[in-house]
């Protein structure tokens, strides 16, 4: 049936004889063998009447196609079973060979075009890799054919988005149900987004050293509740180090050479409509720590913890 519809190696497996919750002990026997055994043992069985109707595709194959194949090869069912076993063995072998590559994709969320093209059958490797992220074969064909297309080219599955960025595809979880705007009533607090968690603490008598993961903001300049949201076109702030000069967030992201996919998930932390921090990148001059600061709000981003942390594993 799968062969008629079109399938990969996995489609040749058919119904598994055993799953974690189910065992099918009679799957290896033909209908004739089971009927003969039941008659010999005096067993009565119930047969689904729909099995005799050729209105169903499976029955047309069983009643019209299989008999012709059995004329050509009386042991067709046994031969078919042997072929399926060999297909399953090939699938297991290929899966083992691709395991390292697929783990790397799952960890980095990217597909290097040069690494992909190094495989003898790159389209096959791409298809086997992306099926775990709900991309179907026809999409994978288009993705492979357009791998050197214009950066920013995008493909979507039910849960994921694939974006071409220079010489790699970036794989990201689509934002479908998680809120893109969150309110932070006060600190301390821990906030989760689809891409990271944010931890806020109030500190007094502190020593500080900021980096890309941690921002220290003057608590006196902040007015709670704060807003955490994805940046929007038209947003602007006063980057720390530019003496209070305004800059569009879009221009800042371009200057930082942030990849296209990452731009779409850059968040800003706002106080009363003013951006205090482009999360993970730059503090606003108006909220920086000064010698007059008595209380700081320490904000740390953790990209290892998010609403989506278990999805890629």
Compact overview of the structure:
The chain is of the alpha+beta class and 313 residues long. It is 31% helix and 23% strand. The protein has three domains: 2-88, HUPs (Rossmann fold, 3-Layer(aba) Sandwich), CATH 3.40.50.620; 109-173, no CATH class; 181-302, 3-Layer(bba) Sandwich (Phenylalanyl-tRNA Synthetase, Chain B, domain 3).
If you had to describe this structure to a student in words, what would you say it looks like?
- The protein has about 325 residues and is of the alpha+beta class.
- It has 3 domains: about 1-90, Rossmann fold, CATH 3.40.50.620; about 110-175, no CATH class; about 180-300, Phenylalanyl-trna Synthetase, Chain B, domain 3 (Phenylalanyl-tRNA Synthetase, Chain B, domain 3).
- The protein has 9 helices and 17 strands.
- The protein has a 5-stranded antiparallel sheet with strand order 7-11-14-15-16, with no helix packed on it.
- Helix 6 crosses helix 7.
- The chain is elongated.
Tertiary shape: elongated
CATH superfamily of the largest domain: Phenylalanyl-trna Synthetase, Chain B, domain 3
Mean pLDDT: 85
Number of domains: 3
Could you give the order of the helices and strands?
A: HEEHHHEHHHEEEEEEEEEEHHEEEE
CATH class identity of the largest domain: Alpha Beta
Q: What percent of the residues sit in helical stretches (DSSP H or I)?
A: 25-40%
**Number of separate helices:** 9
Number of strands: 17
SSE-based structural type: alpha+beta
Rg over C-alpha atoms, rounded to the nearest angstrom: 29 Å
Beta strand % = 15-25%
Tell me the CATH architecture of the largest domain.
3-Layer(bba) Sandwich
Largest sheet: 5 strands, antiparallel
For this structure, the CATH topology of the largest domain is Phenylalanyl-tRNA Synthetase, Chain B, domain 3
């Amino acid at each position: 049936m799968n062969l008629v519809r079109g399938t990969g190696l996995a489609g040749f497996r058919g119904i598994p004889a055993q799953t974690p919750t189910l065992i099918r002990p009679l799957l290896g026997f033909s209908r004739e063998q089971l009927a003969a055994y039941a008659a010999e043992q005096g067993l009565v069985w119930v047969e689904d009447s729909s099995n005799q109707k050729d209105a169903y595709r499976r029955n047309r194959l069983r009643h019209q196609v299989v008999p012709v194949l059995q004329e050509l090869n009386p042991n067709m069912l046994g031969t078919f079973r042997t072929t399926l076993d060999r297909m399953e063995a090939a699938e297991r072998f290929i899966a083992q060979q691709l395991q390292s590559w697929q783990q790397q994709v799952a960890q980095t969320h990217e597909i290097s075009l040069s690494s992909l093209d190094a495989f003898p059958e790159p389209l096959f490797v791409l298809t086997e890799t992306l099926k775990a992220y709900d991309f179907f074969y026809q999409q994978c064909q288009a993705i492979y054919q357009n791998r050197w297309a214009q950066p920013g080219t995008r493909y979507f599955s039910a849960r994921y988005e694939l974006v071409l960025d220079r010489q790699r595809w970036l794989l990201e979880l689509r934002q479908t149900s998680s809120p893109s705007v969150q309110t932070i009533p006060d600190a301390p607090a821990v906030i989760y987004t689809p891409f990271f968690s944010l931890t806020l603490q109030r500190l007094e008598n502190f020593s500080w050293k900021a980096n890309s993961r941690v921002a220290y903001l003057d608590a006196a300049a902040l007015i709670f509740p704060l807003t955490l949201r994805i940046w929007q076109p038209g947003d602007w702030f006063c980057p720390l180090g530019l003496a209070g000069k305004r800059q569009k967030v879009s221009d800042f992201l371009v200057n930082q050479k942030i990849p296209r996919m990452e731009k779409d998930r850059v968040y800003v932390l706002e106080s009363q409509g003013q951006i205090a921090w482009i999360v993970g990148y730059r503090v606003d001059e108006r909220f920086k720590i000064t010698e007059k600061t008595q209380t700081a709000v320490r904000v740390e981003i953790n990209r290892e913890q998010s609403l989506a942390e278990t999805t890629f594993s």
